[in-house]
Design brief:
Number of strands of chain B: 10
Oligomer: heterodimer
Strand content of chain B: 15-25%
Order of helices and strands of chain B: HHHHHHEEEEEEEEHEEHHHH
Shape of chain A: globular
Order of helices and strands of chain A: HHHHHEEEEEEEEHHEEHHHH
Strand order of the largest sheet of chain A: 1-4-5-8
Helix content of chain B: 40-55%
Number of helices of chain A: 11
């Protein structure tokens, strides 16, 4: 057991750092993950990494993964977090792709994986429905076989950034007579330009347009768009969720967030003194950082177990729960730190002619919006209560 | 980076785990704790025979070439079995000081610690010093070529079984000054040493130790005169990492017992483990334990890093483990219901040990404050 980087790992870190410094788009520096990005802005870094061969490190090498060790992957996320890089979105690279290379046919792999790797094709996720949230197995959207086609009807919701999507992966009920709700579901790929697909925006409490309703009316897709076996889509769905969870801890980004919070708390004044010198607030930051350290080492242990050949298991639920709790507390403390200037609604302001949108210190912009937005994290990807159910069942055996 | 244990570490874990299972079960432990001596010299001899007492020492010093990770492995198993024998005070603390001592001190004591024949206790706390390692009223005054020690050390764990003490005393400076702290080795049978022995609430034995004009030679000083505090802090941080490992072991068992109990205990016609509110509570206990293991690895792996990194790591771990131990202990009792309150059930004894671990070497509040002070780059670091 040791925490040392080998000379090769140090060299790798330097290589990565240099590449990021030289290639990360200047105009996106420090923008972070704000929601009002354009499609091109979201994809800019992904495409650069695609050319370099680094856009999908976690994939098996034969499909375009980098074959990095868990330590190298740790270094990779740390280095990207240093510049707040806008990373490849999970829906293609981390969600549908592992399903395709695990359960798909050779043709499907050839057809879909290159576009995900390069960042040319945008994917969205058609899982949740108005009546199927945490209870995902109760999806009602149907896919009926008609000759060489599936005919899909139903309504999906919370389709993140579907306004930009080229393709979507959908859970559809293909056998309404199945005995258990988990049976009779299939995993089907849909080109979002197919007639009958309609995407309608949902405005969220932070004012942003991040998610959508997706309506499917007599949408016809080729039978070859089924991934895995007919009626066994639940296997793909569960597999995907476990993969989604393992990247969800967001440790490197939260560490960067704590640094920013410290900087903000050093500038904000209480009775003329920096907020960070107030014992109460400083201790809140300490507690957050300590909990983040615990999460970081839990993730490192999980990664080490993974590289020893164990796939992401139910332990990844811990990362989801603790990772999202910390992300939320970070935005909560940032909101507290900025005080009065959390209130102005930056997106709703008229520009004052100086190209500056916000009022108050720059670091106060979007703090409340971000706090509001991050409440989603304990709800999505299987709510944190569902994660507890998973641990209870799969690990504690209750 | 590597999170794997060596083959030797795996063997220590397996053989110790078997020994505890076969010869240190809960009933045996209960008898040991209730005995006049309060510990089992026979078990101690077996621990020595297994090589546990030499495991964390370098081969140069006559040990097995391990280090803090080996101590961590041992302490975690001890935590699972609620072992009361003085591994932490003697091997981790006593050995921690003496392996950094003079050649003569090493020659005189290290072999004895590793064979189990010499047993050390760490007399650092004082009635009015709380967790401040420099807040010392015990004094060591120059007396010829040696020193004369006077003072009262509080709750010295393992002292009734000890042959020697590591004693911190003030040789110069004001009561809480960082400078002026000196570390001494004092034989328990030295003239002027007296003890009042007693049991602790978690099954161990401790003493109030009194020093009255105790004469020691200059050779009894471990490290430098007046500059002992950094060494005390270093060994204490190592002890914190080991203590965290013990807490992890205790938490693991308390959690497993609770899950098992909830499977069997029926109320309202069903096993209480079927109730979601209890399932989620037990998942939270599980997560607290897992994160404690992570923090223990972290603190153990960072004991050899630079001073600030090491101190922050130890404090961070102690905070997290203090909170986790409180939660896991309290919920283990709660979910066991009335049975959890009985002395007969093992779970209450795990709860008691976890409770007292938080108070040893600084509790959550102390270490959260220490961590915060160490984090404040633009603030002067407050004295310990």
């Amino acid at each position: 057991m040791n925490l040392d980087f080998s000379p090769e790992e140090v060299a790798f870190r330097d290589e990565v750092r240099t590449f990021i410094t030289e290639n990360y788009p200047k105009e996106l520096a420090g923008v972070g993950t704000r929601e009002d990005l354009t499609r091109d802005e979201f994809l800019a870094w992904h495409k650069i990494l695609g050319k370099k061969g680094w856009s999908v490190p976690a994939w098996p090498e034969k499909y375009g993964g980098t074959g990095w060790t868990s330590t190298q992957r740790y270094i990779w996320s740390e280095e990207n977090a240093r510049v707040d890089a806008i990373m490849p979105l999970p829906f293609g690279a981390a969600m549908v792709a592992p399903v395709i290379y695990t359960f798909g046919t050779e043709e499907q792999k050839k057809e879909y994986l290159p576009g995900i790797k390069s960042g040319d094709v945008w994917w969205c996720q058609g899982y949740s429905e108005p009546g199927a949230g945490s209870d995902l197995a109760s999806v009602k959207t149907t896919a009926v076989r008609d000759g060489d086609e599936w005919v899909i009807n139903g309504q999906k919701t919370w389709t993140t950034l579907a306004q930009f999507a080229d393709w979507g992966f959908f859970l559809c009920r293909t056998d309404p007579t199945a005995k258990k709700p988990q049976e009779g579901i299939s995993f089907i790929l849909v080109n979002m330009k197919t007639p009958g697909v309609e995407v309608r925006p949902i405005k969220l409490i932070d004012g942003g347009h991040e998610v959508n309703e997706t309506w499917l009316t007599d949408v016809r897709v080729p039978v070859g768009n089924l991934v895995g076996k007919e009626n066994e889509g639940w296997t793909c769905a569960k597999f995907l969720l476990a993969h989604e969870r393992s990247g969800i801890a967001g440790v490197a980004r939260s560490k960067r967030g704590v640094e920013k919070l410290r900087a903000i708390a050093s500038e904000e004044l209480v009775d003329g003194k920096p907020l960070i010198q107030s014992g109460d607030f400083a201790r809140k930051i300490s507690q957050l950082e300590i909990d983040l350290t615990a999460l970081e080492f839990t993730e490192l242990r999980t990664l080490a177990a993974e590289s020893a050949g164990k796939g992401p298991g139910p332990e990844s639920s811990i990362l989801k729960i603790k990772g999202t709790e910390i992300q939320q507390r970070l935005t909560e403390l940032t909101l507290e730190a900025v005080g009065n200037y959390a209130a102005p609604y930056t997106a709703g302001m008229e520009p004052d002619g100086s190209n500056e949108r916000g009022v108050g210190p720059d670091h106060s912009n979007f703090t409340a919006e971000t706090y509001f937005n991050m409440r989603k994290t304990s709800i999505y990807g299987g709510s944190n209560e569902i994660q507890r159910n998973i641990i209870s069942k799969m690990i504690l055996g209750l | 980076m590597d999170f794997n244990f060596t083959e030797e570490q795996g063997m220590i874990r397996d053989s110790l785990s078997r020994l505890i299972r076969e010869q240190y079960d809960f009933d045996t432990r209960r008898k040991v704790v209730a005995s006049k001596e309060g510990w089992s010299p026979a078990m101690w001899a077996q621990f020595a025979e297994l090589g546990l007492l030499m495991a964390p020492f370098s081969e140069e010093d006559g040990g097995l070439g391990g280090g803090p990770i080996d101590a961590m492995v041992v302490m975690e198993e001890f935590g699972k079995g609620l072992v009361v024998e003085p591994y932490l005070p003697s091997v981790v603390c006593g050995g921690g000081f003496l392996k950094r001592g003079s050649d003569a001190q090493k020659a005189e004591h290290l072999a004895g610690i590793m064979s189990g024949e010499q047993i050390f206790a760490f007399a650092y706390a004082e009635p009015r010093g709380r967790y401040n390692l420099a807040d010392l009223e015990t004094t060591a005054k120059k007396d010829g070529s040696g020193f004369s020690i006077n003072g009262h050390k509080a709750v010295v764990v393992g002292a009734p079984w000890a042959t020697h003490f590591i004693v911190t005393a003030r040789t110069s400076g004001g009561r809480r000054d960082a400078k002026g702290v000196t570390v001494f080795v004092v034989a328990k049978d030295a003239k002027g040493v007296s003890t009042r022995d007693y049991p602790t609430v978690d099954g161990r034995r401790a003493s109030e130790v009194y020093f009255e004009n105790v004469s020691v030679s200059a050779d009894a000083v471990v490290g430098e005169v007046d500059n002992g505090l950094p060494l005390v802090e270093l060994v204490t941080d190592e002890a914190i990492a080991a203590l965290c490992a013990e807490a992890c072991g205790a938490m693991k068992v308390a959690h497993e017992m609770t899950v098992e109990y909830s499977r069997n205990r029926k109320q309202f016609g069903t096993a209480i483990g079927k109730f979601q509110v209890l399932q989620h509570r037990m998942v939270d206990m599980f997560m607290e334990h897992e994160q404690s293991v992570s923090m223990t690895y972290m603190a153990t792996l960072k004991v050899d890093e630079d001073e600030v990194t090491r101190k922050k790591a130890a404090s961070a771990a102690k905070v997290r483990i203090g909170q986790a131990g409180r939660f896991v202990g309290q919920q283990a009792i709660q979910i066991h219901g009335g049975m959890g309150m009985t002395d007969e059930m093992a779970v209450g004894h795990y709860f008691k040990r976890l409770t007292m671990i938080d108070a040893e070497f600084g509790n959550v509040d102390h270490h959260l404050k220490r961590y915060t002070e160490l984090s404040a780059v633009d603030l002067p670091v407050a004295a310990e």
